[in-house]
Amino acid sequence: MAKYRVTQSAVTQLLEDVKRDHIAIPELQRPFVWDSVKVRDLMDSLYKGYPVGYLITWQSVGAHLKGGRTAAHQQILIDGQQRITALRAAVAGLKVIDKRYRSARIRIAFNPVAEEFATLTPVIDKDSAWISDISELFNSSSTFRFISEYFEANPQIDRGSVEASLARLEAVKNAQIGIIALDDDLDVETVSEIFIRINSKGVPLSSADFAMSKIATYGDRGRNLRKLIDYFCHLAVAPHAYSDIAENDAEFVASGHLKSIAWLKDDSEDLYDPAYGDVIRVVGLVGFSRGKASSIVSELSGRDPETRRVDEARVPLAYDRLEAALGEVVRKYHFENFIMIIKSAGFISQDLIGSKNALNFAYALYLRLREDDSMTEGERKRIVRRWYVMSTLTARHSGSFESTWEQDIRRISSLGAAAYLKQIEESELTDGFWTVALPANLETTSTSSPYFQAFVAAQVAAGARGFLSKSITVAAMHEQSGDIHHIVPKDYLQKNGFPDRRDYNQVANLALTETSINISISNSPPAQYMARVRQQIEESRLVLGEIVDGGDLMANLRENAVPDDIEAVTAASYPGFLERRRRLMAAAIRRHFESL
């Protein structure tokens, strides 16, 4: 049985359907990402009768229209937003939202003699052979008068050929565009699968995209909640855009939501810059106890999760929960406190964050724990810190994480967060994990490995100094300037039987150090550069770093999980050195976790 129907619609009818809200286009409130050249090319394709691709729509249940009405058959446009926006700009002469959130016109010019489209420029605007803005022809009250004025300005041209080209241009209004309307009873996963198969570019459409589109269909309230998510994510990355939004989006300012994210204009923190998909996921966990973004779509559609039937009375309640959860997510106090919790676990920069999903769940967990008045802030912080590190080490939020999220939320609700976390730790973070699995996981060349990141975080939290550094910490080097140093130099290993980067670039052979120390060591093997350090200690004359005390040297090696007999390591004993250092690194991570 077909799960969709295909229809054709004239350009003018399509634009009228959009104008009357029969087709909802959430993207109209977002910056127009096409440039004017793409708009020109779209018009050229329609003029020549070329196909411009199908639009894909999906039924929206209980969508709110202007004037407080509820749409029985409104369609959400889930693919084709940019094409529709381009048509509104070029054919209807309507403004688009530019990258600074200002209303702006895109003017497309047409030369009926050369049958050529172009983006309007001052030169073209002064050339009478060009129609400076084709929307003027499409919206003219008298096409005859418009054409007559053109001939008056260009008496020398061939009237017959120009009349023919202008007739073809005007016919663009009646050009047929295909619409694939997906059945309204399809779930989000099925819609997404159909979208991928239909879409010639094979671009996946995430369930978060559907959720954002669905949110925006609930009248002014829905549009502003959608923009709250968009603007929050945008300002987290680009705080300077605040003034553009404040000056150019009067509707959003009037909604009062801008005040709740105004703090981002002064924000310079980039540890956690959530995209809209991340916000959707956190909101789903906080407001609905659901891990799948598609579940939010169902909730906002009024679908009862038990009966699977749609009850429109559920829709406003779902939007209430959505708005309340969003308010918690974007609140300055909550967001900044969560960042401090993660940093207090040693994960002080974005470079140490291997899983955005681990952050998403940890933030949702923090917000949910804030609802428990019986818990102190210290207890909340401890649980969130340990949960985040646990989930990083166990890859808990990879693979089919959405189902795991829902299971975790259910068990946290029934057992309590502390008891459930202890249960996970006892079952997964066993002695075998720390002494066997974790050292094995550290057998990698990836510095973005969550296990290496956890080791660096452990060093940061412990205040460890850089390798052979007297006073400069790993934290300072990580945030400012430091080098990743090969403890057994790469050049030495390459010349002595280890030419493969998979050997010499093992993370167990890496340590953060000062640039000057890295340069001073160069390609010397450990026996040579450690001899220089020993000589420095004996003579109190600085030649490599600043350590001048034997006990301090041993402490520095321990801080960097480096075996204390490092000077004896050669190419022949290199594999054994890697094994020993992995165990030392794993032990450092364990001590760190147990201290949280």
Question: What would your notes on this structure say?
Answer:
This protein has 30 helices and 13 strands. It is of the alpha+beta class and 596 residues long. The strands form five sheets. The chain has a five-stranded mixed β-sheet with strand order 1-11-3-6-2, with helices on both faces. The protein has a two-stranded antiparallel ribbon with strand order 4-5. The two termini are 56 Å apart. Pfam families: GmrSD_N. Residues 12-214 form the GmrSD restriction endonucleases N-terminal domain. It comes from Aquipuribacter nitratireducens. This is DUF262 domain-containing protein.
Overall shape: elongated
Rg for CA atoms:
31 Å
Count structural domains: 3
Number of strands: 13
Q: In summary, what is this structure?
A:
The protein has three domains: 4-198, no CATH class; 218-429, no CATH class; 438-595, no CATH class. 54% of the residues lie in helices and 8% in strands. Residues 12-214 form the GmrSD restriction endonucleases N-terminal domain.
For this entry, give a set of tags.
596 residues; alpha+beta; 3 domains; 5-stranded mixed sheet; two-stranded antiparallel ribbon; 54% helix; elongated
Topology:
Blueprint: E1 4-10, H1 11-19, E2 23-24, H2 36-48, E3 55-59, E4 63-64, E5 70-71, E6 75-79, H3 81-90, E7 96-97, E8 103-104, E9 108-111, E10 116-119, H4 122-126, H5 134-138, H6 143-153, H7 159-170, E11 176-182, H8 188-198, H9 207-215, H10 219-237, H11 242-248, H12 250-255, H13 257-261, H14 276-288, H15 293-300, H16 314-330, H17 332-344, H18 356-369, H19 377-394, H20 401-415, H21 417-428, H22 431-441, H23 450-462, H24 474-479, E12 483-486, H25 490-494, H26 501-504, E13 510-513, H27 515-521, H28 526-539, H29 550-559, H30 574-595
Helix pairs in contact: 2-3, 9-10, 9-14, 9-15, 10-16, 14-15, 14-16, 14-18, 17-19, 18-19, 19-21, 20-21, 22-30, 23-30
